[in-house]
Structures are given as C-alpha cells and as structure tokens.
Design a protein that fits this description.
214 residues, alpha/beta, Rossmann fold, five-stranded parallel beta sheet, two-stranded antiparallel ribbon, 8 helices, globular, DUF218, DUF218 domain-containing protein, Cell_Envelope_Assoc, Rossmann-like_a/b/a_fold
Length: 214
C-alpha cells in the first residue's frame, strides 16, 4: 500500500544499526549500547543510536504508537532489540509501549518481521525509522516483498528528526557526509538497492560485517 502521511502510526519500528559492549575498567561491569556515527563495519559508518534518539522523539509526537525494536544479534547474546529497548526507556519511553522483535538478523529480515507484526496486529500504518543512508534500501525491500503490505508504510530518516530538534546537528551531519566512511556506506547501499531491483540481492554474512571499528 502507498504511504499515507495523514495517518498517525500504530507502530514506530526502529531498525537496528548494530550494538557494542563496553566494560567498565574499574568495576568490570559490561553495558551494551547502539553504535555511534564514529563506529562502523566493513561497509562504512553505522550511527545506530541516532535511530533510537529519533524514535524517542517520535514517541512523544505519537503517544499512542507502539515502539518496535529490532534484531536478534548482539554482543554476549544480548539482542540488539533488547539494547534498543533499554535505550528507549532511558530516553523516557514507557516500557509497556515497547515490543522487542528478536528474531531478525539483517535489514531484510527486520523489514519482513515488521511487516509480519503489522499483519498479525492489524496495524493500519507503520513508520520505519533508520539512518538516511539506509532508507532507499528499506523502501526497496518493502516494495519488492512477496505480496502487498497489509498496512501503509512510512519511512523516516533519523537525521531529519534530530536536525529539527537541534539545528546545530545539521553541521555535524554535513561533516559526517563528507567522510570516507559515510561515502563508503552510501556506495554499499546503492549497490544493495540495485541488487534488490535486479532480484540478485544477497545479504552479507555476519562474518563479513565484523570488520567493526569501535
């Protein structure tokens, strides 16, 4: 179904941008968080936490919407969905609004799982949130899914939300876009979109993504 921007979303879906573990050198305690823009994998910059921040802002704008966090994989067996959920609650989102989707392992399966949730719960409108660089590939997955989605699907890049909240972020984002890591990510995403359209898309294996710089 085509996007209808007049509908308030029944669910705001945060796609995972990778998580990392941090160990306190004093206590040895380990905490988990989403990636920053300074962190990346073999395909370029990540910036997963920006997605969480944007979703928290949208949660205020749409107080009746569920928040869906995504992703099975994460360090030490702690799912990306669980890490995102913890970050959302820390940003003020009520835990009872959060649905953790802990089965997906990549962008394609995150999109598929979100569409499945929408069908199971009879949602009318769903908003998919990610970094701007990833939105074209997410849209391509939705448009090339088997059978039309059972709800309208909207797409929201995190950076537009963060710039609206804090105009100074625009300068940060402009600097980021000029980096080699960001340009590398854009090139990888463009190849992905072309492969989806051609029917030849193959998701990278996790071992091929693990060249993560943190």
């Amino acid at each position: 179904m085509e996007q209808d921007t007049t509908l308030a979303p029944d669910a705001i879906v945060v796609l995972s941008g990778g998580t990392v573990a941090e160990k306190d050198p004093q206590t040895g305690a380990v905490t988990y968080r989403s990636t920053t823009y300074e962190e990346g994998d073999a395909f370029g910059t990540l910036g997963g936490y920006a997605r969480v921040q944007a979703a928290a802002v949208l949660a205020i704008e749409y107080p009746d919407a569920f928040l869906v966090t995504s992703g099975k994989d994460g360090p030490d067996g702690v799912s990306a969905a669980r890490t995102q959920a913890s970050e959302l609650t820390a940003l003020g989102v009520a835990a009872e609004r959060i649905i953790m989707e802990e089965t997906s392992v990549n962008t394609a399966t995150q999109v598929s799982a979100a569409l499945g949730l929408a069908a199971d719960r009879s949602w009318r409108h769903m908003l998919l949130v990610s970094n701007r660089y990833q939105i074209p590939r997410i849209r391509a997955f939705v448009e090339h899914t088997d059978g039309p989605p059972q709800c309208t699907v909207g797409y929201q890049d995190a950076e537009s939300i963060l710039m609206a909240q804090d105009p100074s972020f625009e300068q940060t984002f402009e600097r980021l876009k000029k980096t080699e890591a960001y340009q590398k990510r854009l090139a990888a995403e463009a190849r992905g979109v072309a492969a989806i359209a051609a029917g030849s898309y193959r998701a990278a294996e996790q071992k091929d993504k693990n060249e993560r710089t943190v």
